[in-house]
Amino acid sequence: FTTSLNSHLVRPTQNPNLQLRFCFPPQNPNSLVRFSPWPPRSSITPTQKMSLLGSDRRDVPSSGSAGGNGTVAAAASLRLRLNPNKDHKPDGYEDMQLDFSPNIFSSLEKYLPPSMLNVPRDDKAKFMREILLKYLPLGERNRAQKHREYRQKIIANYQPLHRELYSVNPATFFVPAFLRAINDNTEQSFRNIMSEPSPGIFIFDIFQTHFCELLLSEIENFEKWVTETKFRIMRPNTMNKFGAVLDDFGLETMLDKLMEGFIRPLSRVFFADVGGSTLDSHHGFVVEYGKDRDVDLGFHVDDSEVTLNVCLGKQFSGGELFFRGIRCEKHVNTGSHPEEIFDYSHVPGRAVLHRGRHRHGARATTSGHRVNLLLWCRSSVFREMKQYQKDFSSWCGECNRQKKERQRSTIAATRLL
After folding, report:
1. What is the reported pTM?
2. Which end of the chain is more exposed for a tag (fewer CB within 10 A), N or C?
3. Would you say residue 1 has pLDDT above 60?
């Protein structure tokens, strides 16, 4: 497992008047905990590695130890595959009462040994649960349980205003040009509908006006319910005091489909270097700016591999995004170069797609009311692999600059010989 920090860190940058913040969700275990193909090396013993890694192709015996489920008891001796079975379509676990997010079980299922893939879903869930329980501390399990109860309480009491929003309907959600590009599913079809005004920042129209209006109406209805019932809700992250987590009041499945079917195809092409082809979880929320709301947003990086940012409306002035280059953890506070500086003005229905490590902030919304939909898309595979890497020159601007400088120095030294 990898877990994210539950609070933001504030560190000085080279500019004494500027601080860079790391923007994370609040304590929301379902969005913070992500499955990795194997636990971090520091957390397991060689014996545990041998029992968890590799591909065991033995058939699962039909009977097991006395007094228990034969399939599960026998499966306990099997090992997870080292690499996922990409051709296997995992079961859905949304309707089951589980200790962990259903998405974790669906992701982990691809790593099950071949003989486990076709056993009953309940048996697979029990087998995977036993593995997961070994690597998630009791405190985090308790937080996960409390958050499940929190969500269940909201969903049991909140009555949606526009139920058509709770499942993806491409014909009514997306503008036709975007939908055609996704259906064609080629790099050229994607580039035909978008611009890239600065490296790694893609801008395109995505949502129909009617969809934006419906979602704004649903958000207002939810906030009205919160006010009337005096229900205390979790805010989207540690930097925004206003807004709501869409996943918490029933939109999680819809946003999952949005990520899987419409954002991952783009990310596979444009952000493969940061796990764009293996996005498997998300944190979806809205933020609000204006009078009696948040005014601006400090310089930060997102807790995501890929971020989708869409302005929903309404009438407003200001609020421009400013971008200042992509950085890995080591170089996150280094200075920016002229070619990395880019400012963007929001347009309702228009999306900005960028790497989560692309440093950015939002200037003050000087008048009116602005609401934006954010979808932080994550890859558990990329996060696991990143722990064992030191060179991120394929996407970190500073790593790339230093690598080129070393190459120039080597060439210069060679010429002197």
Report:
1. 0.72
2. C
3. no
